[in-house]
Specification:
Chain A has 9 helices and 8 strands. The first copy, chain A, is of the alpha+beta class. In chain A, the strands form 2 sheets. The first copy, chain A, has a 6-stranded antiparallel sheet, with helices on both faces. Chain A is globular.
């Protein structure tokens, strides 16, 4: 089964590099030998997932079907989508659903507002847990032990001048998020971006998070708390009541 | 490299079945032996792409990253997204980009309108070529030989009472689509759905198609032609001019 693991690693490295790649480049990006990468790309090409143009390989749309497999088989995503869309229509802001996966928040569903300045996120996007509202809600839902392990192994990078990079301070913030049942993150991920998130509960505690992301120069932090948070909480209750995630 | 092929087949069958599956069900869906499916699911679970709950396996969000690999590495998708969004903001209707892949149209980018009744399509969705506006534009862009081969091997299913199921008639329609440079499909895929599509040109002819999909009870076919088609053509020219696809 090693060739499956290697093939998936090669597929994924196209997402990280965001461009067509030569065998040598994919070998550098994955840490696999050139011979190994060449065999993988040959198989992926034969199966229709990749195509060769000169020395470069690129992925074909068929690769989309692999990601779609998760989206179309997930009960959580199916139930969340109409709820996110309703919320988006009510608030005229983009709403997302995220889950924790390998120390990141994965966007798994999204309803986008029709603003010209929109935020480039979609199902499959990944962001750091520590600097995002959904990430903090998800971290706050972990056991004490798991939260501490995360804080120990994660480098807290100052993505903006506002990013909390002190472990102790982040730990205190997470405790408050757990108590209050929401996280508000103000330009810690990117200047101009402000968002609020709440947990979605499943059988085993926090199963996911939903958020509303807005532009800081359009929506004040108070608005997020007073106007958006109650609507977000309602949506989360509706989704949590649908179980079973 | 056979285990890579088998593993990808197992991943994809989750998309087709749209639910958690047992080893026996996945074996039935893929035609692979149970032992083989069990080994694949074991590896996928170890790698974090799947999770076992009782006798059932389901995919994890990490599988999304595989589809995202195509989206984030595709020049066409990157260039099309802002153009689709602009078109959506102008017309207040959902706009999509599709490509031909294994006798289907694959949605690879989409800008959704914020209507309450929305059409459940997203990147990764696949639809039959013969009954969709993008599909007909893509078929019309094929060589005479490829078009004939497609018509020979494809069963034209009457998806609604309006679906063209006669090979000769479809062939005539495709010739007109090629001449006029657009396809208008009126409730042949689903009752209530009307759409118009135009080609996007790459170095080797028709590289993709963009369309606008609307509800038939809201937008008349004449509107699609008179109001939407010129905007769609403009967007297609902009995108085609960006090459190189």
């Amino acid at each position: 089964m090693e060739s499956l693991a290697r093939g998936l690693a090669v597929l994924r490295c196209f997402a990280e590099q965001q461009k067509p790649m030569t065998v040598a480049q994919a070998s550098g990006a994955t840490g696999l030998s050139r011979a190994s990468v060449r065999r993988c790309l040959h198989t992926l090409t034969q199966l229709g997932y990749a195509v060769q143009e000169g020395p470069h390989y690129m992925l074909r749309p068929k690769a989309l079907a692999l990601g779609y497999a998760y989206l179309s088989s997930s009960t959580l995503v199916a139930k969340a989508q109409p709820i996110l869309e309703q919320l988006r229509d009510e608030l005229h802001e983009s709403c997302s659903l995220g889950v924790i996966e390998e120390d990141e928040v994965y966007y798994v569903a999204r309803a986008e507002s029709s603003r010209i300045i929109s935020i480039a996120l979609r199902p499959g996007s990944r962001l750091p847990l520590y600097a995002t509202s959904m990430g903090r809600v998800l971290l706050a839902g972990l056991s004490r032990e798991d939260r501490e392990a995360y804080l120990r192994r994660t480098r807290l990078v100052p993505l903006t001048p506002h990013t909390i990079t002190d472990r102790g301070r982040l730990d205190t913030v997470l405790t408050r998020v757990a108590e209050e049942g929401f996280a508000l993150v103000d330009q810690e991920l990117e200047i101009g971006l402000r968002s609020v998130a709440v947990p979605v509960f499943g059988r085993k505690g926090v199963a996911a998070s939903i958020n509303i992301g807005t532009q800081a120069d359009r929506i004040a932090a108070t608005d997020l708390r007073v106007r958006f948070l109650p609507a977000l909480r309602r949506a989360s209750r509706d989704l949590s009541a649908m179980g079973s995630f």
